[in-house]
Amino acid sequence: MSTSSVPTGRGRLAGPLPFPDAARRQLADAQLRVNLRRATHTIRDKRARVVAELPDWEQLRLAGSAIKADVLARLPELLVQFEDAATRAGATVHWARDATEACDVVTRLVRQTGADEVVKVKSMATQEIELNEALERAGIHATETDLAELIVQLADDEPSHILVPAIHYNRHQIREIFAGRMGDAPAGLTDDPRALAEAARLHLRRKFLSSTVAISGANFAVADTGTLVVVESEGNGRMCLTLPQTLISVVGVEKLVPTFGDLEVFLQLLPRSSTGERMNPYTSMWTGVTPGDGPQNVHIVLVDNGRSAVLADEVGRQALHCIRCSACLNVCPVYERVGGHAYESVYPGPIGAILSPQLTGVTASPSASTLPWASSLCGACYDVCPVRINIPEVLVHLRQSVVDAHRDRPSPERTAMQALSWVMGDRRRYARALRAARRGSAPLAAALRRRTVRRLPPPLSGWTAYRDAPLPVGESFRDWWRRTR
Predict the structure, then answer these.
(1) pLDDT of residue 3
(2) Taking every annotated instance into account, which residue ranges of this chain make up the domain Lactate utilization protein B C-terminal (predicted)?
(3) What's the CA gap between 294 and 247, in Å, rounded?
(4) Strand partners, 291
(5) What is the pLDDT of residues 442-470, one digit of tens each?
(6) Shortest CA distance to 4 belongs to which of 129, 14, 125, 130?
(7) Domain termination residue (choose one: 248, 283, 308)
């Protein structure tokens, strides 16, 4: 099911529904939960096996976290260094403050080539800024070449997982999508995975050979060399990065690493955490333009889109360490039951619950202000994060931010708490209130023959929806002490 984004100028980061309402809608889909459980457990079990092979895994996590902390501490300096290196290598670097500017830059660059169709490498950044929609409005069709992204695009749906965007579909559903939406799907297409992959391969091959413009993101950007890095499993990215004449890469400013040597750490952390592989089947790196080899027009669009605001938060900034591995999604009990669409953002799961509200602002939408509560705080996400993002810590921090943002607004709960504070602020008032409560509750307790109330009228029904309300005891501790001592 497609979800609508709330216009924020930041792209697909916020939705119109509070998380509990969006989650309740997804919980009605029993097949979704079956699909999610099967897929997430398969991926996380693979990850656990390959991680156990490395005796220095925790040291690698510490190194990755330290590198990312260093990047954020020197981000302006490293961005200038990257721009200088990439420009010397023949690339053109553009800067975009938000999603609107980024889409305008990319649209202008594509129009300058005269192309009305582009091929795309899987990219969270381009989904975040809603680039496909912006290009479509300009009369330019973007074809997703990642298999899972292609499935979602053909279904007119939205991704529900960072690594496996079509995780909410099983192979029978994918066969129906291909047969109904892929114009050149083979006759008699079955739901055999090999047959489905071959159908997608044939469909995309024609796109690769005819497109003159490609759009990518980047997993990493090396500051001292101006190099961009994309890791993938299918080879579609390699086709996009080498065949077209023009390559446009949209990169979040936090994707930097200081030196080429720092990649060694992340090229061990990322594949094991994401796909459960020891290394990615395809690791593509390119630095500017090489005459006669690959794209001859290389553009890099560096996007902020709220990241500077996240960087300013000493607790929340650790969300910018994220390398988009999706390990936290695969162990999250909440995500496993509701899927990615309930988060109403391109970033679902635990990392989305802390990243999306910070990029837009916690009061930007109903989803942004409720996502920090989309967690049981079990800590499994922190345990598996390859760069040690303390997601539970940030969730609690953001919950406080939401409360602080609404602190001055009148509410029945706040009024009740203020009244209770006044009563409990004086020992005599508190004692009188307890005596009055006991006298008032005695007839009710006698009628119910118990000391708890299971249902209270609104607005107190919010309490008894999940727990019983105890009635005051017949004798307080103070009265008992006075009587017996």
Answers:
(1) 47
(2) 400-483
(3) 9
(4) none
(5) 776 666 666 777 777 887 777 778 788 78
(6) 14
(7) 308
d(Cα 177, Cα 169) in Å, to the nearest integer?
10
**Residue 60, CA distances (Å) to 16, 55, 269 in order:** 39, 10, 7
The region, left, alpha or beta by phi > 0 then psi within -120 to 50, assigned to residue 43 is alpha
Q: What is the pLDDT of residues 238-272, one digit of tens each?
A: 999 999 999 999 999 999 999 999 999 999 999 99
CB 191 within 8 A of CB 171: yes
Peptide bond before residue 291 is cis, with ω within 30 degrees of 0: no
Q: Which residue has the tokens 């005891």?
A: 473
Percent of the chain with pLDDT over 90: 79
Q: What is the full DSSP assignment across 195-228?
A: HHHHHHHHHHHHHHHH-SEEEE--SEEETTTTEE
Domain termination site, one of 308, 341, 357: 308
Cβ atoms of residues 317 and 310 within 8 Å:
yes
Is the per-residue pLDDT at 357 higher than 90? yes
Distance CA 73, CA 172 (A): 48
Q: Are 73 and 189 contained in the same domain?
A: yes
Structure tokens, 106: 């990319």
Distance CA 251, CA 439 (A): 67
Query: How far is Cα 167 from Cα 161, in angstroms, rounded to an integer?
Result: 7
Q: What does the block give as tokens for 45?
A: 């079990």
Structure tokens belonging to residue 243: 């065949």
- As given in the structure block, the two tokens for residue 302 are 């560096």
Residue 330 falls inside a structural domain: no
For 153-192, b/e burial (b = at least 16 CB within 10 A) is bbbebbbbbbbbbbbbbbeebbbebbbeebeebeeebeee
- Strand, coil or helix: what is 407? coil
Q: pLDDT value at position 169?
A: 92
Q: Is residue 478 assigned to a domain?
A: yes
Q: At 95, which CATH number?
A: 3.40.50.10420
Domain assignment present for residue 67? The answer is yes
Q: Give the mean pLDDT of 330-348.
A: 96
User: Would the CA dihedral through 122, 127, 128, 130 be positive or negative?
Assistant: positive
Per the domain annotation, does 392 fall within a domain? no
Tokens of 14: 């916020």
**303 near 250, Cβ under 8 Å?**
yes
